[in-house]
Amino acid sequence: MPFMRTLNSTSIPILTYHQIADAPPKGTSHRSLVVAPEDFSRQMAMLALLGYRGLSMTDLQPYLRGERVGKVVGITLDDGYLNNLTHAAPVLQRHGFSATCYVVSQLIGKSNIWDRESGIPESALMNAVQLKQWIAHGHEVGAHTRHHTHLLQLNAEKAREEIVRCKTDLEELLGRPVQHFCYPYGEYAPEHVSMVRKAGYMTATTTQRSRCQPQEDWMQLPRVSVARRTTRLTLWLKLTTGYEDRRRA
């Protein structure tokens, strides 16, 4: 894929979620990444009330290319948790929104074992049948490497395998193209950007905090984080002002 930059005329937010579930006990590591189902429901209702359309990365592409304009927001969920299907999918469907769920291809149907050393409780990941249900609801699956690995800790051969074979794993399992990638932990180097581009992905998202501005690299798109304590007022500020843009590293 040739080097491309976004051509949108206005800032476009791409929201980042992880688990949509009841919060784990206080003191649990990374508790902030678990958004309560009722809060997620209220946030999506607010987006709809404000006139936004929630879109998957594929549906967002015409807006990033500058071919279409409108009040849109990308919706992404990292890791492929089962609670995305049980709690998020019905809410998204209620509002006619689509979303992209980034999946760890060699842990499908298992759990977030990469978090064990951090003390984060294990949660179920969607299995093949459930991923197909997610797609049947109008959403899409993206790639999040084969093992949720730290790319910066791998040699070039191993990193390329994690990036490229995740795509082929998922395409063989689901019988459809997988066009979008997300860097685990937000960790990557220029050589990984090149690998993602050469693998044939259309976009890649990061943990850089900002709305997507004009002239962003399609392989390094920033996102807007939504955490457990993100209020609707804060979310509105993240969507409509430079609140999040100023937090870009």
Word description of this protein:
With 249 residues, this protein is of the alpha/beta class. It has one domain (14-247): TIM Barrel (Alpha-Beta Barrel), CATH 3.20.20.370. It contains seven helices and ten strands. Strands 1, 4, 5, 6, 7, 8, 9 and 10 form an eight-stranded parallel beta sheet that branches. Helix 4 (128-136) links the parallel strand 6 and strand 7. Helix 5 runs parallel beside helix 6 (190-199). The mean pLDDT is 96.
Classify the secondary structure makeup into a structural class: alpha/beta
Q: In CATH terms, what is the fold-level topology?
A: TIM Barrel
Q: How many structural domains in the coordinates?
A: 1
Overall outline: globular
Largest sheet: 8 strands, parallel
The helix content is 25-40%
Unreliable sequence segments: none
What is the rounded Rg?
A: 17 Å
Q: Mean of the pLDDT scores? A: 96
Distance between the termini: 27 Å
CATH class: Alpha Beta
CATH superfamily: Glycoside hydrolase/deacetylase
Number of strands: 10
Overall CATH architecture: Alpha-Beta Barrel
Question: What is the number of helical segments per DSSP (H or I, 4+ residues)?
Answer: 7
Q: Tell me the fraction of residues in β-strands, as a range.
A: 15-25%
Could you spell the SSE succession in H and E letters? Answer: EEEHEHEHEHEHEHEEH
